Amino acid sequence: MSDWNPALYSRFETERTRPAAELLARVALEAPAQVVDLGCGPGNSTELLARRYPAAQIVGIDTSLAMLASARERLPAVAFERADIADWSPAAPVQLLFANAALQWLADHERLIPRLLSVLAPGGVLALQMPDNLDEPSHRLMREVAADGRFAPSIGEPAQRRARILPAHRYYDLLAPQADVDVWHTAYYHRMDDAAAIVQWLRATGLQPFLEPLASGLRESFLAEYQRRIDAAYPVRADGTRLLKFPRLFIVARRCER
Fold first, then answer.
1. How high is the pLDDT of residue 160?
2. What is the CATH code of the structural domain delimited by 6-255?
3. Which of 87, 113, 169, 179: CA 20 to 30 A from 252?
4. In the chain, what are the domain boundaries?
5. Residue 74: CB partners within 8 Å, gap ≥ 6?
6. Residue 98 or 257, more confident
7. Predicted confidence band at 3 (pLDDT cuts at 50, 70, 90)?
8. What does the alpha-carbon distance between residue 14 and residue 250 come to, in Å, rounded to a whole number?
9. What is the pLDDT of residues 64-82, one digit of tens each?
10. Helix (H), strand (E) at residue 187
């Protein structure tokens, strides 16, 4: 898959950063020495961490060179490194691992989540938030359009297509033996100007694996068909806007001090 587009991602930065801010608000750490932003993207979540913990050693990691370049421009005093969360490990235990809308792209959470908890120092916190919207019209329609005979031969099975995250209680069971765990689920209703705005939001993230294999002409046809279905799935509200429902799962786990 080609690199992520920081400019496209940042068009809805306020909406994308709100869950990160609400996740960070539930982290009860006063002054962690080491903080790692897993899947830092263009640095919007890292900036929240830097503001709250100005004395901490903060590192942002991501696989995307474009996102890392954008993050470095935004926060020149913060260290950013290219790494894959799937096999990343810190040189020493850290006090806070923060992951805003990143871990849903990785497989095998049964192993990943306990491993991330294990690299924390005693009393350290794993704070993560993941979209839980694969059954929403926004994502169901991606799969339906991808199955259309015009596009299916080119798309096949996208390599980076998201797998389903685990049920909330399963994450609790994975973490609770070694941590104090807080789990909650929130559905945001983002006000969008029109169907085209919804498509632009998703083009920066969930749509990318479907669009990547398509030639330019087919890509535009895919987007036109997808937008037509989005227009029907998200009706105009009383003020002329649309509401994009976006469920998210949040977890804050503090490793036991033993």
1. 56
2. 3.40.50.150
3. 87
4. 6-255
5. 42, 43, 44, 47
6. 98
7. low
8. 18
9. 999 999 999 999 999 999 9
10. strand 179-192
